[in-house]
Amino acid sequence: MFATQIVIDDAMAQNLFQPIVSEAAEPRSSPLLQDGEVSPIFVDSRDHAGALRAASDPQADIEHANGVEANLSTDRKPSGKLAVIVGTLGRSNSIDLLVEFGKFNVEAATR
């Protein structure tokens, strides 16, 4: 199971209803589950209550679909190369750092 990065660029904006989860790897995708290993989920504990609650949704979805529970962390950033990061711009240090280092294009996501 793979999830496309949730960064809305011009191509995605033209078709917002395209699937973001697939069974096979695609360009700009990251595995949620691969070889029995699940990407951990991280949300900043100082984020809005809605973001904290929303972080449990993909955790439940992955477990329901595959029978494997993803680790959900609020204070300890996950180790490894891959993680699902849930957060609010201006409330999540991780999201803000992604923006600062050019890994998340805020302008494209807010058009």
TrEMBL record:
InterPro entries: Hex-like_dom2. This is Uncharacterized protein. Keywords: Hydrolase. One of its GO terms (molecular function) is hydrolase activity. One of its GO terms (biological process) is carbohydrate metabolic process. It comes from Aporhodopirellula rubra.
